[in-house]
């Protein structure tokens, strides 16, 4: 069964450093997402991406964050200058159609980011 | 602020017990409700996508109901098995593309 893959599974970085989290969505999916979960809190929406541009973003997704689909398969999340509070599990997801229709999201297994 | 609440936060049951949990969400601007099952160290996996008031969906021993007028959904598990142990997340979808998640119900089924 096709799946969303994320790399790395764990990333440790120093505060102020840039990190890039990588995802390979399912190949025929058109909508791509990043979510995160800070330990003990709810899973939070960061950004959705469709047709090579951001279609919706949350307040969390400020100028320190960016997303890119550099080729036909990868979808990346970049955090320019990491802060301690960016430590979280970051999930990539994809779907055939937008979430507000009858389509479910397929999630990757996450990248645990630890900022020291 | 859109708020999704799930109860209980955690639940321990014996193998063979039936159980249910609740998801409460805003009753206005409703587009869809998703239920996901999330096992430790794995990806959250979709169980149900529900869009219509009164929807009832079933997958094996797991079923869900939806009341959009009053803003709640129930997830039922009949005859729980140890492999049902997981965190069950519900997500409300308002207009747009984001999912608004509850905190989840962590189910542990003891053999």
Overview of this protein structure:
The complex is a heterodimer of chains A (116) and B (111). By secondary structure, chain A is mostly beta strands. Chain A is built from no helices and 11 strands. In chain A, strand 4 (31-37) and strand 5 (43-50) form a beta hairpin. Chain A is globular and about 40 Å long. Chain B is built from no helices and 11 strands. With 111 residues, chain B is an all-beta fold. Chain B has strands at residues 5-7, 10-14, 19-24, 32-38, 45-50, 56-59, 62-67, 72-77, 86-93, 100-101, 105-110. In chain B, a hairpin with a 6-residue loop joins strand 4 and strand 5. The interface between A and B is medium-sized, with 29 and 27 residues.
Quick tags:
heterodimer, A: 116 residues, mainly beta, seven-stranded mixed sheet, globular, B: 111 residues, six-stranded mixed sheet, five-stranded antiparallel sheet
In a nutshell, what does this entry contain?
The model of chain A has no long low-confidence stretch (mean pLDDT about 95). Chain A has no helices and eleven strands.
The helix count of chain B comes to 0
Q: What structural class do helix, strand and pairing data of chain A support?
A: mainly beta
Ends distance of chain A: 37 Å
* SSE sequence of chain B, one letter per element: EEEEEEEEEEE
- Give the number of helices of chain A: 0
Mean pLDDT of chain A: 94
Quaternary status of these chains? heterodimer
Helix content of chain A: under 10%
The largest pleated sheet of chain B is described as:
6 strands, mixed
Give the CA-CA distance, first to last residue of chain B: 41 Å
Note the main sheet of chain A: 7 strands, mixed
Quote the beta fraction of chain B: over 45%
Rounded radius of gyration of chain A (Å): 13 Å
Q: Number of DSSP strands of chain A? A: 11
Order of helices and strands of chain A: EEEEEEEEEEE
Spatial shape of chain B:
globular
The proportion of residues forming helix of chain B, as a percent range, comes to: under 10%
DSSP summary, beta strand count of chain B? 11
Taking all Cα atoms into account, the compactness measure Rg of chain B is: 13 Å
């Amino acid at each position: 069964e096709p799946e969303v893959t994320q790399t790395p599974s764990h990333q440790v970085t120093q505060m102020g450093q840039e990190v890039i989290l990588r995802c390979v969505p399912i190949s025929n999916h058109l909508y791509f997402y990043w979510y995160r979960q800070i330990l003990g809190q709810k899973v939070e929406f960061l950004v959705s991406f469709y047709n090579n541009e951001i279609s919706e973003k949350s307040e969390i997704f400020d100028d320190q964050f960016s997303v890119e689909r550099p080729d036909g398969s990868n979808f990346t999340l970049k955090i320019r200058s990491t802060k301690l509070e960016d430590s979280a599990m970051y999930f990539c997801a994809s779907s055939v159609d937008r979430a507000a229709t009858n389509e479910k999201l397929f999630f990757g297994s996450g990248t645990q980011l630890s900022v020291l | 602020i859109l708020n999704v609440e799930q109860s209980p936060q955690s639940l321990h049951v014996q193998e063979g017990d039936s159980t249910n949990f609740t998801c409460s969400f805003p009753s206005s601007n409703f587009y869809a409700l998703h239920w996901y099952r999330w096992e430790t160290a794995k990806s959250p996996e979709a169980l149900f996508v529900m869009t219509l008031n009164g929807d009832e969906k079933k997958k094996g021993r797991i079923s869900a109901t939806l009341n959009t007028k009053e803003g709640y959904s129930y997830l039922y598990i009949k005859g729980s098995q140890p492999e049902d142990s997981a965190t069950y997340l519900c997500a409300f979808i308002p207009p747009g593309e984001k999912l608004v998640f509850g905190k989840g119900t962590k189910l542990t089924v003891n053999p």
